[in-house]
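Propose amino acids for all 130 sites.
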């Protein structure tokens, strides 16, 4: 098409490439300009390549989003039971501590020596004269 434009009104190759690139959105424009094509035909081929790359990227992103959503769904079901597990763990730890205290008290009761020392003044803050 560009080759059929009469020479009197034909724009320069640089202005044609700029006008062609400006027809796309800003992200696409930037990717197309980074290709630094020499001719309009090269730029049109590059536009097809950029478009196919963008489509492939979007496809990969959608697959990644689907995987992320699946993992979030599976982790949310696991996370809903975590508070229950935490509560059970705390209860078991508390029971284990109580049992350990009882065992220590029982052992002290078995090995307890008779109390041979009786203090004269059981209340150290009270004077004997009072």
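Proposal:
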């Amino acid at each position: 098409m560009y080759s059929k434009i009469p020479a009197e009104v034909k724009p320069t190759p640089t202005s044609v490439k700029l006008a062609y690139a400006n027809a796309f959105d800003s992200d696409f424009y930037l990717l197309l300009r980074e290709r630094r094509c020499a001719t309009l035909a090269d730029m049109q081929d590059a536009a097809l390549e950029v478009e196919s790359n963008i489509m492939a990227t979007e496809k990969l992103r959608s697959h990644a989003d689907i995987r992320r959503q699946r993992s979030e769904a599976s982790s949310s079901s696991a996370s809903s039971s975590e508070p229950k597990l935490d509560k059970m763990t705390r209860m078991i730890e508390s029971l284990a501590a109580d049992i350990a205290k009882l065992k220590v008290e029982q052992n002290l009761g078995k090995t307890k020596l008779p109390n041979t020392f009786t203090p004269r003044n059981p209340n150290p803050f009270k004077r004997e004269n009072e």
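Residues 21 and 29 are 5 Å apart (CA to CA). Residues 2-80 form one domain.
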